[in-house]
Structure formats: C-alpha cells, structure tokens
Design goal:
The chain has helices at 58-68, 127-135, 153-163, 171-183; strands spanning 4-16, 20-28, 36-37, 42-43, 49-50, 79-83, 88-91, 97-98, 101-111, 121-125, 142-149. It is 23% helix and 33% strand. A hairpin with a 2-residue loop joins strand 8 and strand 9 (101-111). Helix 1 crosses helix 2 (127-135). It is an alpha+beta fold. It starts with a strand and ends in a 10-residue tail after the last helix. The chain has one domain. The chain is built from 4 helices and 11 strands; from the N terminus they run E-E-E-E-E-H-E-E-E-E-E-H-E-H-H. The longest helix has 13 residues, at 171-183. The strands form 2 sheets. Strands 1, 2, 3, 6, 7, 8, 9, 10 and 11 form a 9-stranded mixed beta sheet that branches. Strands 4-5 form a two-stranded antiparallel sheet.
Length: 193
C-alpha cells in the first residue's frame, strides 16, 4: 500500500450564492502537477468521448515560458482546479466567517506513485500556463489557484465550458491598447494570461 501524505494550503473558503463554495490559495506552479492533472479529451473503446481539455498549444506555451524566464514576471490570473471529494477544508480554530468567506487550510491528500487519472485535482482552466511553468527554466513560480470540489466529471465539464465560453477581446482592440502601455513605460511584450 502506497504512503499517503497531505499537502496543506492556507486558503480562503468563499461562498457564492446559496450553495457554491470556492477555495482560493497559492501554490508553487512547479508542484501543481503532483496533485492535479489535465483531463484530456479522448475516445474510449466504444467511441464514447471522455475528458474535456484540448491539446496543449505549443506556441502559446512557448510565449508564456519566455515571459516567465524574463526578470520580474507576473501572472495575476488564477488557474482553476476541480478537486474530488477527498479534498477537505479545515476552518481556522475560531471558525469566524466574515460575510461570505472564512480562513482555514485546504487539505489535499496525495498518495505516492499514483497515476494522473487518480490524482485528486483536475486543471479546469490554465493548462497552457501550467505547462509553461513546468517547462520554464526557473526554480519555482507561485501561482494563484481558485478551486472547487466537484461531485463528478460532468460538473468539471460544465465549469470548463463556462470558463472557456467568454468572448475574447478583439485583436484590433488589443493592438490599439498596447501602444498606450508603451507610452506609460510598460513592456509592450508583456501579456496577461
């Protein structure tokens, strides 16, 4: 039997609406692959579609990786992870809730030697950023994580579709805004992901 250890992340538990709960915490991007993986879209034996993530976009990953290897990079966008029910939240000792959130620790059990599909977390949004962090020639890179506990793959897919269905900014607007950043002393090659 493989040894089970627990990763503990100081976190905020955030309540949205009447029954939705999110967790916000920071993790070293180099370590995320130890507890979360990507659910790649594929066909099973009977032709049934499983998973939901598209293949990695190598050019996009390369662009992010180069940025991460520059001095003083910043990625303010959180990655989104869906955890299974093995993950739990332990509120801080006083359990005080301020309006809609409370502090505590998110406990992620991790079994040594498990395969990717047995990990407790799946990356719902941010696979390109995580691949870039993984491949970058840097020792570590803290990343913001927004997580939720999903009851099944259907709920993961729903969140994946919601996160990825927003309309991107038109390229013309991006090009129009970039010179303004340059005028303000900002790096025009810097992107936000």
């Amino acid at each position: 039997m493989a040894a089970v250890r627990e990763l503990k992340f100081p976190a905020l538990e955030i309540r949205q609406g009447s029954n939705r709960i999110l967790y916000s915490f920071a993790a070293d991007g180099k370590d995320v692959s130890s507890f979360a993986t990507v659910s790649r879209i594929r066909r099973e034996n009977q032709g049934e579609v499983c998973g939901y993530q598209r293949p990695e976009v190598l050019s996009h990953i390369t662009e992010i990786r180069k940025y991460l290897e520059c001095p003083d990079p910043m990625i303010p966008n959180a990655i989104v992870i869906a955890f299974d029910e093995r993950v739990r939240f332990e509120p801080s000792f006083d359990g005080a809730e301020v309006r809609f959130c409370r502090a505590g620790v998110l406990v992620v059990p991790l079994e040594d030697g498990i395969s990717d599909h047995e990990k407790p977390g799946w990356i719902v949004d941010g696979q390109q950023r995580m691949a870039a962090i993984r491949e970058a020639s840097i020792g570590s890179f803290p990343i913001c994580v927004t997580a939720f506990i999903a009851k099944d793959e259907k709920e993961q897919k729903e969140q994946f579709i919601l996160v990825n269905s927003t309309k991107p900014l038109p390229k013309g607007l991006i090009y129009e805004l970039r010179p303004r950043f340059a005028l303000q002393g900002k790096d025009t090659n810097r992107h936000e992901w």
